[in-house]
Amino acid sequence: MTLADVVVIGGGQAGLATAQAALAWGWRPVVLDASGGAGGSWPRYYDSLTLFSPARFSSLPGMAFPGDPQRYPVRDEVVAYLDAYARRLDADVRRNERVDRVAEEDGGFAVSTSSGSVVRARMVVAASGGFSRPYRPALPGLDTFTGTVLHSAQYRQPAPFAGRRVVVVGGGNSAVQIAVELAQVATVSISTRDRLRWQRQRVLGRDFHWWLAHTGLDTSALGPRLVQGGVPVIDDGRYRTAVRAGTPDHRPLFTRLDGDGVVWADGTRERVDAVILATGFRPDLPFLDDTAALGDAGAPLHHGGVSSTVPGLGYVGLERQRSFASATLRGVGRDATHVLKALARQAVPAQRVAR
Ligand code: FAD
Description:
By secondary structure, the protein is α/β, with parallel strands linked by helices. About 20% of the residues lie in helices and about 25% in strands. The site of flavin-adenine dinucleotide has 35 residues, from helix 1.
């Protein structure tokens, strides 16, 4: 059994930023991470992934992203950066430790892992991301579809789809990036309920993220309200050009899946080999099931990342937790500091947890 000031569940960017903020306060964090290596879920993202934000706007607190600050780093550079960041932190980061239960106990928490270890602490921060809980919408006729259905979480590269007819469902950055990449080897449609929204990567000679930072929109609670109609696709021009050229084409969401095909909104039926659901993720928090932390469908009940039902419990890395940037490399550090400050005000004094 270990005693800590704060247990951080998850060792990706959100967990590391939380550990960094805890250390800055003089607290002893223990980070429990289910994965065996560094980088959180980044090593599992698709091979061609390039950041939508330049290196300058892709850093965690205390360590700049290396190299040219204007460039857009690729997936493996993020993994290397997070690995270096974890090594530089003087924190107790334990890998291959999957948390399966958080129990409230004597004004604090007992956090148990599947390996049988228990860590007790006054505060717990869940930073477990959503990649293990892909959201799969209930599409009409899905159970009848005989082709391949996969979530974007399972997509790695275009080769297995060469020569196939593929429909990508979803209109966010991942949907468009995957569809454009696939369209080089397959016949691809992007299928969405709403229109595609575009955001130019560069505005008046500056990266879009520069404007977000300098207008304050990036940190403002107003930001998420402005994008309620859907997250725009950040584009340097090539994605929009590809969609205009029909590689991939963009269509309204099909009305149903049917056997080996889809039925489009105009009633035509077409044979389709694969449907890729680029439909996002949900917070993955089953270890909180024995607490009052979760509401409908396992969603955390919180204000700005601070649990509204369990004192001493917080979250870092939730989508739009406090701002536009909450679930990004550039924004997660600010949220971690905010959440820890709030938890410190709530948590019972240290002496109440046996030391
Ligand atoms: P994760 O990276 O998912 O890490 C969570 C960690 O918690 C994992 O190591 C997991 O193993 C662990 N874990 C889960 N459950 C448990 C448990 N029960 N016990 C212990 N450990 C557990 N952001 C940007 O800033 N720029 C981008 O360009 C960008 N592109 C993206 C592209 C894609 C395809 C996706 C999906 C996201 C992108 N993001 C981007 C968003 C975000 O930065 C990443 O999703 C990032 O990985 C989130 O970090 P995280 O630490 O919150 O979660």
